[in-house]
Amino acid sequence: MPDGTPVTHSSTDDTDDGERTTMCHHVPTCPDARDPHATAAHTVSDHDVDQGWQLLCNGLIVFHDGGCLVPP
Ligand SMILES: [Zn+2]
To answer: How far apart are the C-alpha atoms of 69 and 2, rounded to whole Å?
Structure first.
């Protein structure tokens, strides 16, 4: 029965994990927070001067002393 309504993927009905809690909209996508090169991601919130940390677009928080915090 051709009723002219093709089935399309709405963005809500399929949990394709291409989109997670990342804020990264860069092309190509920055490394995941668990990637060995995670700190190569772009800085989205820079508090290095005042608080000693930076938030990267993959959710990683990098501290001034070289430590980093991986998001849950
Ligand atoms: Zn990015």
So the answer is: 53
pTM score over 0.70: no
Say how many Å lie between the CA of residue 13 and the centre of ligand 1: 26
Question: How do the domains of the chain map onto residue ranges?
Answer: 42-69
**CA 72 to centroid of ligand 1, rounded, Å:** 18
Which pLDDT does position 32 carry in this prediction? 94
C-alpha distances in angstroms, 65 versus 30, 48, 61? 22, 10, 12
d(CA 54, CA 5): 47
